[in-house]
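Section 5: illustrative case.
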């Protein structure tokens, strides 16, 4: 008998309607932006809120659920409100505003995108389109801290996004809300004073979950994903303990563990997930990296990270040299019968550093906080799985 009923609901990309222990943050966002919607007694000028906190604490889920509520509320008022979610780590090329604006515009209407115009003209075209169609927009932007770090503090994009109401002075832009999501609370310090001023000071800090919070959250996701009785309270408590003590309350880690353990159980023909299944899953999946972190990387970044892990595993030292990593990286390309390129290698390595996944010491590289052997096996399994779905 299968242990899963809806395995996809363990995916970190699945956002449930219910968010235990994030009601306060969700309520704040809904109230803040609800008061800014058209017909609320004041012009619909763009509101800006910043969400910050460690990975796996529900920031994106809260923002998206707030957007869902606002879209429903707007529909009841006869207002056409559209929600757009973008990830600056995935959907923006540092130094190229056009890439980001084209992604944003395409999610409003694909016909808006044209390579014959400048980024600023594309943005203006989108804003004019919103006005013509009497359409309003609510935008959630993830990984803003990664983008700022990657660009060395260049804030043109953020400055423009937070000043949309100044495009036509005296008139709202039809962008009701802008939510910026960051892991690192220090990202604003890298911005120039003008950009920091535009962002404002409406900030929601997401505190780590307590063990009791984690139990409620993980129990809820288990009820959605697993067949009744497949996961006992004893197993849940063990997963909570590991997540709290070793993964900094990162719920995504717990979801990865449960997903992998469930697969082990089904492969064995077991109708229940046991503690041994969890232990085996933990042995293979090591915090602070999760499958979502790996999936968010480009192919090049995954291969470089795997090359770093392999080089560290072979050297048995805390740090490893660039040339040793390059050698492992080249070998990975040879297996794929492709040619490794130095430029792409260094770009990917720098990106991993910008994300905080690797550290450097001169020309030496390390992966902080993760047992290398476990990470290597984890990466190899994820890279193999992703390559099979490409």
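Designed sequence:
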């Amino acid at each position: 008998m299968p242990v899963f009923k809806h395995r996809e609901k363990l995916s970190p990309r699945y956002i449930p309607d219910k968010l235990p222990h994030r009601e306060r943050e969700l309520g704040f966002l809904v109230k803040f932006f609800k008061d800014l919607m058209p017909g609320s007694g004041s012009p619909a000028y763009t509101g800006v809120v910043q969400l910050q906190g460690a990975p796996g604490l529900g920031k994106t889920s809260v923002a998206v659920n707030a957007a869902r509520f606002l879209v429903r509320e707007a529909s009841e008022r006869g207002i056409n409100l559209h929600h757009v979610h973008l990830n600056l780590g995935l959907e923006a090329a540092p130094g190229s505003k056009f890439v980001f604006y084209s992604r944003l515009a395409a999610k409003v209407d694909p016909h808006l995108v044209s390579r014959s115009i400048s980024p600023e003209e594309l943005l203006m075209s989108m804003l004019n389109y919103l006005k013509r169609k009497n359409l309003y927009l609510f935008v959630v932007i993830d990984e803003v801290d990664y983008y700022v770090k990657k660009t060395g503090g260049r804030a043109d994009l953020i400055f423009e996004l937070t000043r949309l109401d100044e495009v036509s002075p005296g008139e709202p832009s039809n962008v009701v809300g802008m939510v910026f999501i960051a892991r690192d609370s220090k990202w604003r310090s890298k911005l120039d004073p003008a950009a920091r001023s535009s962002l404002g000071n409406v900030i929601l800090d997401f505190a780590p979950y307590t063990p009791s919070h984690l139990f409620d959250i993980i129990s809820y996701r288990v009820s959605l994903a697993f067949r009744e009785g497949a996961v006992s309270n004893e197993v849940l408590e063990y997963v909570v303990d590991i997540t709290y003590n070793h993964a900094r309350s990162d719920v995504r880690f717990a979801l990865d563990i449960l997903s992998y353990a469930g697969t082990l159980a089904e492969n064995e023909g077991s109708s229940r997930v046991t503690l041994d299944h969890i232990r085996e899953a933990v042995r293979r999946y090591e915090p602070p990296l999760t499958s979502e972190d790996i999936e968010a990387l480009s192919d090049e970044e995954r291969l470089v990270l795997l090359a770093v892990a392999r080089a560290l595993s072979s050297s048995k030292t805390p740090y490893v040299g660039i040339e040793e990593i390059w050698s492992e990286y080249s070998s990975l390309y040879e297996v794929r019968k492709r040619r490794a390129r130095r430029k792409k290698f260094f770009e990917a390595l720098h990106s991993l550093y910008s994300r905080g996944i690797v550290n450097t010491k001169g020309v030496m590289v390390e992966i902080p906080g993760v047992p290398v052997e476990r990470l290597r096996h984890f990466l190899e399994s994820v890279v193999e799985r992703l390559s099979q779905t490409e």
